[in-house]
Structures are given as structure tokens and as C-alpha cells.
Amino acid sequence: MSSTDNKTVNVLFPQLTTADANATSGNADLTTATVLLGAVTDNASQRNPEGDAGLGTGASTPLTAGRTSAPDLTTLGGFRATLTTSVTAIDFTFDTTAFTVNGGGFHVLTVDGKDVPCTGPGAATTNTSNPGAQNSPGGNGTATITVTCDTTGIGGVNQGQALTATNVARGIVDVATVGTIAQANAACGAPFNGSTNSCNPLEASDTPHQATNLPDLSSITFQPGSAANVNSPDVAIYTFDESVLGDAGSLNGAAFFVYQSNANTVSGGTSGPATVCPAGAAAATCPAPSRNAATPTQVAVSFPHGTLATATGGSVDDGAVQGAANNPTGVTRANQEDELGVSNTNQSTITPDRTAGPDLTAVSLTAQTNSFGQTTGYTATYTFDEALTTAAGVVPTSLFLYLPDGSRLICQGPVVVGASASSTPTNAQVTCNSYAFDTSGTPSESGTNTGAASAAQIGSAVLGTVSAGAVTAADGPPSNPEGAEPTTGGTGAKTA
Predict the structure, then answer these.
(1) CA angle 263, 269, 271 (to 5 degrees)
(2) Quick one: pLDDT band at residue 27, thresholds 50, 70, 90?
(3) 435 pLDDT higher than 60
(4) What is the dihedral of CA 234, 239, 243, 247, to 10 degrees?
């Protein structure tokens, strides 16, 4: 408690220092402070509601092609023989400290298009227990992770042979292979000591990045949808180093991806709320992937409007396309995994009270009336700053209203999430019209009030709040932090 103001609490976060701007351990990118229910109590033993407040003044930084908030793979090197001819130790180098999440997520591709599985250090190891730059998996918690790759059974001319800088085309790390925080402390997307464990998108090494004998990416370009039409899809053009087949059966939209500066990955498929294009619209309105008839090396893939605003790269899973050359009936020349960074003229903006997850921005109350104009109920609309998944991704009991006397109402459901950016409610809004008083706590969070809240009581709410994890963003994790906003449209008046 502050010695000069009994409404101020000074909190020490020992892992943060003003001189340390590291995104994992320092004060970089801090935008929001939150409190849980009951962080403090007043002289009448009433507990505070959930709340949030912005930190800092905000800043904008240029987006960098191929770079995210997660560890990004840059190079392969240090090819070393082991006691087994078919097993080679290789160093995967990232642009920042990397902690293993999935030791089986490392692999390399040979120049003849064969996928070689690799074994990385376990998530429970350390660089002390399993040091890097040796002939066995190690280096967890450093920027260079050593893996061992085995060519046994891969087929082709390199089967059973050692790997070298000559016969390896590129290295690959699957989605969520490494993160910024040790897995023992936080899963991907989970918080720890004021930071979030940011795990990598699908990535390929910058060096080496050679061609195989299968279709390989040569470039990706972004074409954002019209700013004047929120239902216009964003489009990414994937260019390969050879012509690809253009029939629907040869183009797999779900195997095309873009990734954003926060390391979130968005699929070009048309199934699931996170991948429908445009966001929230029927799949039939989303253009299927198409090959350029005039330039058959190019494939256009649609994404939800706004996806490309902070995108810094794209990738393809194996089987996204099939090469047209030397592809007789019954022979498939499908691509292997690949990834490229993409230049984006937008900037990454850090805004106080805004996070990478859905942030609560408003809570409004709307009266329902009968034919005689009499109020029969109230609907609360919680508005967030980005599109959400369907109602199945909402936790109704994490949506709250507060009356002027501090009584707390809990949404009982069902809830509704809008279908699109132009629907009512929108796909960034959640509505609830049934609430019950929260009788937990000592004294009760709702005083003498119990049971279901009446229409008049719901309409008199002056504050709307959400717990962390109340909603899920359409484009994936992280979920929302705690949030609180004064209500509008109701009958209540805040008391001193």
C-alpha cells in the first residue's frame, strides 16, 4: 500500500527491470495491467471487480520479413558425423533463445526431396545437462539447438548416408517446436512472470534454402482486401519454382498458411471459424485456391479480411500443390514443407490497454420491449477488438455485470456471437440476457441478493467485466485478459 495514498497499491515484479527491454524477461511490450476479483478490499470488506488499465504511451515499429515474437529459425550448420553413418548431428540456429516444446518437430529436406526426421533435446533438458554443439541432442534454452538426423529408410540416393551442407536443401521446424519460455513453466500461449510463451510458426531455414526436385516456394506476395469492405478477403500469391497442377484435387487450401508478427498462424483452408474467408461468412463465399492460368507457377489463396495486416511470412505444408512436370497418372510430385518471409509495409503497433488477444472495449445494455412498449428484459453486449470464434468458444460464466452497490451478476447463457463483421451482433461481440447473482465470498459478492437477476436489475448494471480466457479469438491464441468497461444504455448510475 502506498504510504501517501490508500487507493494505490505498489506491486513489485522482480523479473522486470526498467533497464531490460527483453520481451521475455524485461519491460518491453508491456501494455496492460490487470487485477482479479478480490485483489483488494475496502473498509466495508467489499472486494474489487475484475479490472484493467493501460501501461505506457504506445509505439510503432516496422514489421520484419520472416520475423515473429517467437524464436525464428535462421541457419543450419555444424554438420557432424556420429558413430552411426546414417545419423548426423546438425545445429539449428534461431534469432533468439529457444526452449524445446517438441523434440520431434525438427527435420531436414534433402535436395532430392526426402524428409529426414531429426531428434532435438527434450523439453526437460538444459544446456548444462545436454550441451549443444556435441554429437547428441542438446542446447535447450540457447539460440543454437543441436539435433541428430537419421537417413535410415528415407529412400533416394541419400538413404543411410551422412547429411552435409551439399545434400541438404533446408531445415524445417514444425509449428510449436520451440518457444520463448521453458515448457515446464508455461505451455505455448500461456503466461509466465508477466510474459507469454510465444511458440514458432512452421519455418524453414534461411540458410541453406536450396531447391529440391519437387515444387519449392520462390516467393510470396500479399494483397490485402479493400479497406472499405470488411468482407473482402485478403489474398496471398504463392509462387513456386515450377508449374503446378491447377485442378481442385491438386490444390489443398488447408496446407497454405500465413503467419503474423505475434507468431500466430492462419490457414488458407475453408473449414473452422478461424479459417473461413471472409471471416464469419459461409464457406461458399470464400474463393477456393486457384492457379494462375497464364502463369501456372502461381497459386492465389484467400484469408479472412485483416489477416495480412501484421503478417510477416507464409508457408506451405507438404501436399499443398503438385508439380505439373513428369506427373503421369498415378504419380504424385507433391511439394514438401517450405516457408518464406514476406515484406510488409505496415508497422507493429504497441498500444496501451491492448494485447495480442481479444480485448474488451465496450459493454452496452439494450432493452427488449413488448407490443405495449414495456421493458421485458435486457441484453448485455460485450464488444472486443477482434473477431471471435463461435459461441462454443465462450465461457458464459466468465462474463459479469456489476450493480451500483457492487453486487455481481454472472451470465447464465446461452450466449450469442455474431456471424460476420456486418451482422448484429458482429463476430467481435458476445451477447447474454440471463444473469444470476454471485453469492460466493464472505460477505457475499451480492449482499442479500440471490437467485436470478430481474430485467430491472440487469438494466441497472453500471460495469461489465470479463475474466481472462472468457473468449477465444477467431485467429487463435492468446485468449483475452481480464477487462472492465462502464456500461452504456442502461438505467443505473454509478455511486461514489
Answers:
(1) 110
(2) low
(3) yes
(4) -20
Report residue 472 as a C-alpha cell. 477465444
168: β partners: 110
Which amino acid, one-letter code, is at 56? G
Q: How far apart, in whole angstroms, are the C-alpha atoms of residue 388 and residue 345?
A: 26
Instruction: Give the model's pLDDT for residue 97.
Output: 96
Please tell me the distance from the alpha carbon of residue 167 to that of residue 160, in angstroms, as a whole number: 13
CB atoms within 10 A of CB 227: 9
Task: Write the CB contacts of 457 (distance below 8 Å, at least 6 apart in sequence).
Answer: 403, 409, 435, 449
How far, in Å, CA of 492 to CA of 133, rounded?
Answer: 66
Check residue 248 and give its pLDDT.
80
Beta strands in 356-481 (DSSP E): 360-369, 375-384, 399-402, 408-411, 416-417, 429-432, 435-437, 463-466
Report DSSP state, residue 396: G
- Is 421 or 415 the better-scoring residue by pLDDT? 415
Kindly report each contact of residues 124-128 with a partner whose C-beta sits within 8 Å and lies 24 or more positions away, as own/partner. Answer: 124/183, 124/184, 125/100
Single out the residue of 429, 449, 422, 342 nearest to residue 383, CA to CA: 429
pTM confidence score = 0.70
Check if the beta carbon of residue 180 is closer than 8 Å to that of residue 156.
no
Grid coordinates representing 39 are 485483489
Question: Would you call 385 exposed, middle or buried from its count of C-beta atoms within 10 A (0-12, 13-18, 19+)?
Answer: middle
The continuous run of DSSP H or E covering 330 comes out as: none
